[in-house]
Amino acid sequence: MPTTHHVRVHRSEEHLPRSEQLAWAIAEVATDRVEVPRAVVDMVVNRIIDNAAVAAASLLRAPVVAARAQALAHPYTPGATVFGRSPQLRVSPEWAAWANGVAVRELDFHDTFLAADYSHPGDNIPPILAVAQHTGATGADLIRGIATGYEIQVDLVKAISLHAHKIDHVAHLGPSAAAGIGTLLHLDASTIYQAVGQALHTTTATRQSRKGAISTWKAFAPAFAGKVAVEAVDRAMRGQSSPTPIYEGEDGVIAWLLDGPEASYDVTLPARGEAKRAILETYTKEYSAEYQAQALIDLARRLHRRYPEVADPEQVERIVIHTSHHTHHVIGSGANDPQKYDPTASRETLDHSIPYIVAVALQDGGWHHVDSYAPERAGRQDTVALWHKISTAEDPEWTRRYHESDPAQKAFGGRMEIVLTDGRTLTEEIAVADAHPLGARPFEREQYVRKFRTLADGVLEDVEAERFLDLVERLPDLGTGELSGLTIAARPGLLGTARTPKGLF
User: Fewer CB atoms < 10 Å away: N or C end of the chain?
Assistant: First the structure.
């Protein structure tokens, strides 16, 4: 049975043994070399494919070009690979984690887990894989490390809300990635404990990165956490210590950044000998948009087919989306961000605007990771007119289902009410996205591979795409040195078409 750890703030004069600290409990989970279930192994493979897919589609985007240029300024042997470049070209692992983390995150198109807080657990993979390549780890080692990263992040996300205090969700990613690297390298609990503390201490930033006019930093934030996790492990391995107790201290994270000196949390982690299965609770995206938009895009696609008049702003009086607190306040009209209705807003802002996303999906009957965000698409007169007739409203029942612990009841959708100018009202609802494990078209290996081939089309040569897929599907059996092939090299000449900005390095 899982073990629940009661976590509260302790005054400095109180003695809190490290064995009773959350960072130590995390480290103990990371050192438990329990067998990895077959379903977890298969899902790890799926998510490595998923990350490579979305990275391929982002290789020419400005943040990815900038991050790649920074990484390439730090060559290292043995080092780790960088998405887009030849596997023979190696950079220092923390910089590989940085560049690859940005490539994975840029399009907001990989996996998600939502509970008390938000997360993209696939962000754990770039730093853990970079260290695995650098150290010559095996495929089995990598699988164990990734399973730990997902487990710790999901468990923290279930128990501790960061967003309620306007702290960015990557504060759970630094500790989870550090723990995953610790598992990968077979480190002892004392070393992992120090790395977890350092990684948390250095990744607590505000959520302004996801508010108002959202900048390109949105993609860099998780990559920064991954880079910091690699560096934290390196320092801890050299015998350096971290602030302690990092969660429970009188001036620690809980006391001053979260619920305050009187706060407490119950964090449930796997017991000794219990398999790390949390990756199976996570879900990927079929569309390049905030996860809460996934189900509503599917609903809009259906409405487009059944009621084509809903695409015409002249025939629509108003559209109200009744949904969860999070959807309403973060990507809906409840955010009170005028930028969410601005046709000149950045792509990062538009992918956090459910009114925009629903307007386009109603008109186009689908969603495209590039075309749906194009400036000319956002500025189309009939789209702007429809878009400005769409609002969201919080519904307590959808909020309850958003936080439901039972996966069969947990939902991220909503109810759409469309009032037409002819007096009719159309009401339709959807609980989960079609691609969700409980959805109409759940993603299995076939869908992950299809997503990869679709997004790699025109970016990778066919032989390169098939080489990568063949290798990753043999992940459990890969030996020392073979993990260097878990990257993708762009077709000749492609990367040269992007202007590389000049920086310090």
Answer: N
Same domain for 238 and 357: no
CATH number at residue 245: 1.10.4100.10
Residues 271 and 303 in one domain: no
- The first and second tokens of residue 293, run together, are 């938009």
Q: Three-state SS string across 118-170, please?
A: EECHHHHHHHHHHHHHHHCCCHHHHHHHHHHHHHHHHHHHHHCCCHHHCECCH
Is 484 domain-assigned?
no
The model's pTM = 0.95
At 299-328, the pLDDT tens digits run: 999 999 999 999 999 999 999 999 999 999
Ranges assigned E (strand) in 9-97:
75-80, 91
Do 352 and 301 lie in one domain? The reply is: yes
- What is the residue range of 396's domain? 292-430
DSSP E strand boundaries for 69-180? 75-80, 91, 113-114, 118-119
Terminal Cα distance for the chain, rounded = 50
Cβ-contact 369, 287 below 8 angstroms:
yes
One domain, residues 260 and 352: no
Count, residues in the chain: 505
With 90 as the cut, is the pLDDT of residue 374 above it? yes
d(CA 254, CA 268): 17
Is 258 inside a domain boundary? yes
- Rounded to 5 degrees, φ, ψ at 353 are -125, 100
| pLDDT for position 268 | 98
Helix (H) or strand (E) holding 201: helix 189-201
Instruction: Note whether 106 and 63 are within 8 A (CB).
Output: yes
Residues 402-440: pLDDT tens digits? 999 888 899 999 999 999 999 999 999 999 999 999 999
Q: What is the pLDDT of residues 8-27, one digit of tens each?
A: 999 999 989 999 999 999 99
CA 448, chain centre distance (Å): 16
Do 96 and 184 fall into the same domain? yes
Q: What is the CATH number of the domain that holds 349?
A: 3.30.1330.120
Ramachandran angles phi, psi of 427, nearest 5°: -130, 120
What is the token pair recorded at 185? 């390298």
Count of domains for the chain: 2
Same domain, 120 and 190: yes
456 belongs to a structural domain? no
390 by DSSP, 3-state: which?
A: strand
Residues 170 and 277 in one domain: yes
